[in-house]
Write a structure and sequence with these properties.
Shape: globular
Largest sheet: 8 strands, mixed
Oligomer: single chain
Radius of gyration: 21 Å
CATH superfamily: tRNA-splicing ligase RtcB
CATH topology: tRNA-splicing ligase RtcB
CATH architecture: Alpha-Beta Complex
Strand content: 25-35%
Distance between the termini: 38 Å
Helix content: 25-40%
Number of strands: 19
Number of helices: 16
Length: about 475
């Protein structure tokens, strides 16, 4: 493969993009992929995007791209960048439209054989109980005051209402709520869009998936998480802040663009962290992130209720493994060039992977490290991983967030229309329920990268190592 001279190979899964790949780079970029994927990312423009991130002012360390890198808005999906907390910037394009889109994983006491006997009833009931699809909503509609509490308290708001357990919060990144949220920074239009969408999946790549443990790589860690036995049934929930978060991003992109500026491109519009506009965006982003954690908490509560009704599993036996965000910017302390610095870490389509001993982890996770959730496509499977020693220095404690798309949604529909997707999935032992005419084409396994390869690169690059592999049994798609 012929690559520009500005790209230097550091190892089998690590590459540095030197200044000069695009004009205006203020620091290098680093990409964690295999050679074939690097070529694709160069060809489709994703490498150009991460190089343009390296043009932004106030950056600390290198701009980074995770193993699932592909073209996104502003930052590539899989983009990570840290900016000095005092002199740096915040970029809505570095967070994304679906603020705190994330994944929650739970484990049950059921076996795959027990679930297979009632899998159609289970899929039908989950599909009814958890609304999905574009514009999906529930019968509940919340006042501004109640929405304000949601945006401040996150998952804790739902737990306080009896929709979950205190242990759920300690198994959430940031315990299910980030500080600094201010509902006053969220527009009336955003609140209106989110008023009746709590507890809904939405559309696109969001899903609710019933899975089985297919392979265990680290029995000791898997035992701590309750997934040490092959054929143990788990559940994965992937969704975010719905219309509220999308509107927050849209509002602030328009506001910051109207102010003018010298950006690498219009999708990388930014504000200084200490500016009034930067402060308001961060407050609104935190509010949307907390809404997303409340959303996943309500869905998890509904799922527990369905399993209790069909299988008699008590909700308190349906324990949470972890909940991670992968579209968010967070203030963290990291060692950079030998000294501790407070930085704002943007993770766009990338997830946290803090190793053992990290002080930001709840006490229960500190001995081993933070669980990392890496969902794949609906026909192949997913992984649970664990942050590796050295990941803080390599990537600000970050890793990939999923398989990553190989085809855009439009390309997938154009290429795959006419395939008998339900039958194909059935042959793999996967029961599917969906909303939307083209959803199954957009989300076909061929539209995604090989999640096994992405997981292997995460491990080979020293970011996160595999603990268990999960296979889908029933999938609910929006």
């Amino acid at each position: 493969m012929s690559l520009p001279k500005n790209i230097v190979r550091l190892s089998a899964f690590e590459w540095r993009i030197e200044p000069g790949y695009v004009g205006g780079m203020l620091r290098p970029a680093r990409v964690f992929v295999g050679e074939e994927e690097l070529g694709r990312a160069h060809a489709d423009g994703a490498l150009r995007q991460i190089a343009e991130v390296a043009c932004l002012p106030g950056g600390v360390g290198e701009a980074l791209a995770m193993p699932d890198i592909h073209l996104g808005y502003g930052f590539p999906i899989g983009g990570v960048a840290a900016f000095d907390a005092e002199e740096g910037i915040v970029s809505p394009g570095g967070v994304g439209y679906d603020i705190n889109c994330g994944v929650r994983a739970l484990t049950t006491t059921l076996t795959a054989d027990e679930v297979r006997k009632r899998v159609d009833r289970l899929a039908d009931t989950l599909f009814r109980q958890v609304p999905c699809g574009v514009g999906s909503h529930t019968r509940e509609s919340f006042s501004d005051d109640e929405l304000g509490r949601v945006m401040c308290d996150g998952a804790g708001w739902a737990v306080a209402l009896g929709r979950g357990f205190g242990e759920d919060l300690s198994a959430c990144e940031s315990e299910g709520a980030v500080q600094g949220a201010d509902p006053r920074a969220v527009s009336a239009k955003a609140k209106e869009r989110g008023r009746d969408q709590l507890g809904t999946l939405g559309s696109g790549n969001h899903f609710l998936e019933v899975q089985r443990v297919a392979e265990v790589y680290d029995p000791a860690v898997a035992a701590e998480w309750g997934v040490e036995t092959v054929d143990r049934v788990t559940v994965m929930i992937h969704c975010g802040s719905r219309g509220l978060g999308h509107q927050v991003c849209d509002d602030y992109l328009k506001l910051l663009t109207a102010g003018g500026g010298d950006w690498p491109n219009r999708e990388l519009v930014y504000a200084r962290i200490g500016s009034p506009a930067g402060g308001r965006y961060l407050a609104a982003m935190a509010a949307a992130a907390n809404y997303a954690w409340a959303n996943r908490q309500l869905i998890a509560h509904a799922v527990r209720g369905v399993f209790a009704k069909i299988f008699g599993v008590r909700p308190e036996e349906f324990s949470q493994i972890y909940d991670v965000a992968h579209n968010v910017a967070k203030f963290e302390e990291h060692a950079v060039c030998g000294r501790r610095r407070k930085v704002l870490v943007h993770r766009k389509g990338a997830t946290r992977a803090f190793p053992a001993g990290h002080p930001d982890l709840p006490e229960r996770f500190r001995p081993l490290g933070q669980p990392v959730i890496l969902p794949g496509d609906m026909g192949t499977g997913s992984y649970l991983l664990l942050g590796m020693p050295g990941v803080l220095e390599k990537s600000f404690g970050s890793t990939g967030h999923g398989a990553g798309r190989r085809m855009s949604r439009k390309e997938a529909v154009r290429t795959l229309r006419g395939r008998r997707v339900v039958e194909e999935l059935g042959e793999r032992g996967v029961t599917v329920r969906w909303e939307g005419r083209d959803t199954l084409y957009e989300e076909h396994p061929l539209a995604y990268k090989d999640v096994h390869e992405v997981a292997a690169v995460c491990e080979g690059a020293g970011l996160a190592r595999r603990v268990v592999r999960l296979e889908p049994m029933a999938v609910i798609k929006g």
